Amino acid sequence: MLKQRNANAVAVLTFELIIGSGMFEWIPAWLGRARTAVWIPLMVYVAVAVALSQIMVYLVCQGRVRRAQAVTVFDALLPQQRVAEALNVLMLLVFLVNAAMVLRMAIHLIKYVALPDTPVLVLVVLGMLIPLQLFFGGFDALLRYELALFWPTVIIGVLMLLLCLEVSDVANLLPLWPISWRAVACTLPEILYLLPGFLLAAVYLPVFHAAGVEAQPMRGMVLGGVLAAVALQLLNVAVVVVDFGPFEGAALNWPIVEAVRMQHGGRWAVLFLLPVLSAVSSAVNLYLYAGYRIAVFHTRARRIWVIGPLMAAVIALSVIPESFEQVSRYYAPVVEGMGGVLLGIVIGLWMWTVWKGGVHAG
Amino acid sequence: MKPTQQLMQQLHDAYDIVVRPIPSSGLDVVFISTMVDLTRVEERLLGPLTRNPSKRPGNIERWLRDTLQLGELRLTRDAREAALKLLDGHAVICFPKGYVLVNVQGLQRRLPEEPAAEMSIRGPRDGFTESLDTNVSLIRSRLRDRRLVIQTFEFGQRTRTKVLLLYLEDLANPNIVHEAVQRLRRVQVDGLLDSGGLEQWIEDNPWSPYPQIQSTERPDKTISALLEGRLAILVGGSPFALLVPTVMVSFFQTSDDYSQRWISGSAIRIVRIFALALSVFSPSLYIAFTMYNPELLPTNLVIQLAATREGIPLPIVFEAAFMEFMVELLREAGNRMPQQMGQSFTVVGGLVIGDIAVQAGIVSPMMVVVVGLTALGAFAIPNYEAAFVTRMIRFPMLMATSVFGIMGTLVFALLLVAHLSTLKSFGVPYLSPFAQLAYVDWLDTLVKGPTQWSVLRPATYWSPRAWQLRRRGGWRG
After folding, report:
1. What is the per-residue pLDDT across B114-135, written as a single tens digit (0 to 9) for each?
2. Does residue B18 sit at the A interface (CB-CB below 8 Å)?
3. 20 to 30 A Cα–Cα from B477, which one of A270, B19, B24, B137?
4. Which CATH number fits domain A7-355: 3.30.565.10, 1.20.1740.10, 1.10.10.10, 3.30.565.60?
């Protein structure tokens, strides 16, 4: 029968790794600084994303050749196992914090749109039932969940976004050229917020390579996934700018939800939760399962002894902050900082591997 | 002890065991009168033997072959084996050194009829019966391929039910065949009376409410499955074939989809998918829209709904649960009643109870409409088991919606997808081909593509050997 871990799945998974929570909560911050010149940091982001994705594929293929039994590219490529373990633990922390952050933000959105009075803990536990169920099915079950929901989610999401253009004003995109390059330059560090998804590639791509997906198709599919995700991000930014303009767009918490709400007397905002919830559950599953893989690889503990503490940690991290602002204030810098360090090490590892001559990986 | 006595010792002295001594030959013919074709016994067995009584045979088997002109003769010395064959409808000729077994089976068999639960508008009208031989002949008459493999198993220490595993040698995935054989070998039951019992033994996840094996009464559906590389399991005494592996979309396909033009077939399938959505979601969405998110509906409709609920004492959730329960009750009662009575009871019961409930002010008229739509949606699903699960899923979804509103519906739907993602049927993901992104198979899922475009066998089940034979009708013969 057709293999579950095939090249098409790589493209979809890459898309989901990059798109993250699908809430696009970063748009106001970008618009706040770069205004209508937001396309410039976006293009920088596109370049970074494409480069990082190709670096990751290169490292995965190198790692497979050197050490087949590895959970991430770090322990596949680094000669010092202790260093690799330390980096993996760091990555595990990033994944857990990011999973908690995504979950808490989604709950904030749900409370804002639909259930203002429901306790956060109840919603968090409700949300964690999905990964709990999938974990017992293993990675393939998780992958099937992601793949089965992918097309319906994308189609509904994109259709709703396109419908948002009904009240758009293209003049809001002007001026295209930045008034202040300094402001645009200040937006560039925000790119780090969008990059932790690439760390997931360090965990998931080796699985596909081990399952027989060759380097060339993987490279193509990863590139396809990255470009599709970036196109969706561009569409979202464009919708916000043409609907609200850069100033109003920067002042809103959830500009995409507000854009949807503007159509048809606010009826569709709740329906927009369907693609958002699907994307959020995908992101939480992927971060949590990546953490689980690392934890199991290093502890060799039984499944139940790993799943329990990991889930408890994510639930606790989601519930502890009192407000959405606290989540942004405390968790975002942690994710950006540690994620940035890890991605820097990935790039260093790539340079080192290239300098050493690499291993022909097909 | 004489062989006849040994044989009789194996079987308790039942009224239908007949022992007929053949005069002056020393032979006894034993058979069970309720299991054999008595005309055949008289004309082919007893007649020739009594007409040649004096020829005391040296080689008994050769003599019997010459005398009886029957091909199906077997010699054994084991009284237990002879007794078991007797129970299979054989006649046993006892002679001093052993037994000769003659197949004179003659059970009453039902003729193939159109399956009541799987009606077809344009497809063939015959269905499987309780007889394995009839069922195999229905398949063989349409599938004249020498590569059709039929493996035989016997289950039930007491019922000794014969089970057949059928597959096309060059199309079935060897891994799936191996898995099926292994699972069948693990079955240990005292008695196996129908395919439903076997299904529960060999399915992947007994804790899931979803059926992981497709059952059908239609030979054409079975052959279509075999041509896709799937396996069929026939159980003696059951008119249902089990088809494995099974994916979720196969429960929404009917043989009519393939008989009609592809546009009509696709339209009907889309109707069925809507029926599924209607059946699962409509009560929950009604509750969500009226209780939690009335802003999602047009204002006039909201006012109308509020007006119809005026004076209803029950909360809307109880109203929905009550009506859903009533529908299930009527359906179950209708199933258990005699056929003619059951249908009218269900229709009249539904109308009367619905009308009286509305008049008594227990439920709103809109709720009756919603519940009616839900029931209709479930009945449009072609497979009984799938329709049943769909109906049952509504209740927990109703509860989730009543607590969390439309969020509850959405999260419950995602939980369902998560559950379905964990399911497999003989190694094939239940959500295939969506979960494997086997795009080439998507043309025969929610819609049915033009026949000219569907020339490839489904990738969902393919085996490495079938890869070369993927083109339907284009493989080497």
Report:
1. 888 888 888 888 999 999 989 9
2. no
3. B137
4. 1.20.1740.10
